[in-house]
Design a protein that fits this description.
The protein is an alpha/beta fold. It is 33% helix and 18% strand. The protein has 2 domains: 21-76, DNA polymerase, domain 1 (Orthogonal Bundle); 82-350 and 361-366, Aldolase class I (TIM Barrel). It contains 12 helices and 12 strands. A hairpin with a 2-residue loop joins strand 3 (106-114) and strand 4. Bound molecules: S-adenosyl-L-homocysteine. The site of S-adenosyl-L-homocysteine has 18 residues, from strand 8 and strand 10.
């Protein structure tokens, strides 16, 4: 008898990341522990260790029977992120972490400490399929979606370093998470939503962060923005616009050929109306490409009177790129014109530039 068709055609299995506590809702955790032959209350014990104390090694959990350690690690606490490299800048207040995942994929996160807050920039995919020509991650294409636990694990790792006083400035907590690392979060929609819930559910179900402290940044996948509007989450939506006109945006953000500037902005205003959250418009200023005064005026016209904030990002040129950041006088004029339209605008700092940890530089090339 010949082998079943499924076996003959089975590709070498790359598989999914192993299941982890942080992939599961509290109910699913109890079910998983019971299925492992553990009492249901074990789920809450483990959650308290992981989400409340950032401990993931059962050997450090003194309330667990030693005989259960291996079973628990294998069942719900596999090691998902292996630290390959950590690079610090800005006097140790910016830390870039390079992680290797179970299948060898590499992703990066960046922790940035400011007076009064700590922001972690996390990856939602290994690579990215959106192909924006100015972005380092976009050049390499998409490897795969991350799991919720792989996303949450980046924040837990940063939280642990902070709690243990390993970050300059003393012990602290992660107050903000921005989905501005590698990947397009709304292309990994369900998983990103579940990660947001893990980040914001109260301890011990989750990390207990404020929903308002979370920013989801997108190239503008309109159906997904609409879906996000219905989630009832108070997260900040950031839209990577980069051009106010379709002709240029088709080139800078290729998905614009599918969803145009007007559609993306309409979806953003609907989000703002429903959530009463100010939408953030991301705009990388690229010399002589999108930084002309007339484009500032056009952008100002599109955004005037809306619940919006513009984040101008001086372009971080990627290796081999023909593009570079705007001249200071053009940047200043761009700001001035937006302000003249009454649009709130700030120029983002370029933290972590020298460790390739700044916006758009995360490429995980240096395994
Ligand atoms: N895919 C999502 C989130 C990841 S990128 C998105 O596009 O929004 C986070 C932000 O960094 C986006 O606004 C992105 O356009 C911007 N960015 C990418 N490459 C950059 C570069 N080289 N210089 C400045 N900003 C960049």
């Amino acid at each position: 008898m010949s082998a079943p068709v499924e076996l003959v055609f089975a590709a070498p299995r790359r598989g999914k990341p192993p299941r982890h506590l942080a992939d599961l809702t509290p109910t699913e955790r109890r079910e998983a522990l019971v299925a492992l032959g553990e009492p249901a209350y074990r789920a809450r014990q483990l959650s308290t260790h992981y989400f409340g104390r950032y401990v993931e090694d059962p050997a450090e959990m003194t309330d667990l029977p030693a005989a259960a350690h291996d079973r628990i690690v294998e069942g719900v606490l596999p090691r998902l992120l292996t630290q390959v490299r950590t690079l610090a800048a800005d006097g140790g207040t910016t830390v870039k972490m390079l992680w290797r995942l179970f299948d060898g994929a590499l992703v990066e996160s960046v922790l940035m400490r400011y007076p009064g807050r700590v922001t972690m920039c996390v990856s939602s995919q290994a690579g990215c399929g959106m192909a924006c020509p100015f972005c380092a991650t976009g050049q390499a294409g998409l490897t795969r979606n991350l799991s919720a636990a792989e996303i949450v694990g980046q924040v837990v790792a940063g939280s642990r370093m902070l709690a243990r006083g390993e970050i300059a400035g003393g012990p602290g907590r992660v107050s903000n998470v921005v989905f501005m690392g590698m990947g397009e979060p709304l292309a990994n929609y369900k998983t990103v939503i579940s990660a947001v819930r893990r980040l914001t559910d109260p301890v011990p179900d989750g990390l207990g962060m404020s929903q308002r402290g979370v920013t989801v940044s997108t190239v503008g996948l309109v159906p997904r923005i609409k879906q996000l509007t219905e989630e009832g989450l108070a997260v900040t939506l950031a839209v990577s616009l980069h051009a106010p006109d379709d002709e240029l945006r088709d080139e800078l953000v290729p998905v614009n050929t599918r969803w145009k500037v007007a559609e993306v902005l309409d979806a953003a205003w609907e989000y703002a109306d429903r959530t009463r959250r100010r939408v953030s418009i991301e705009y990388a200023l690229i010399r002589d490409i999108n930084d002309q005064a007339w484009r500032a005026d056009l952008l100002g016209t599109l955004l005037a009177g809306r619940l919006v904030h513009v984040n101008l990002i001086p372009l971080n040129p990627t290796p081999g790129s023909k593009w570079t950041a705007s001249r200071p006088e053009d940047e200043a004029e761009f700001v001035r014109r937006l302000e003249a339209h009454g649009v709130p605008v700030t120029v983002r700092d370029t933290r972590g530039r020298e460790i390739d940890g700044a916006c758009g530089q995360l490429a995980a090339k240096d395994s």
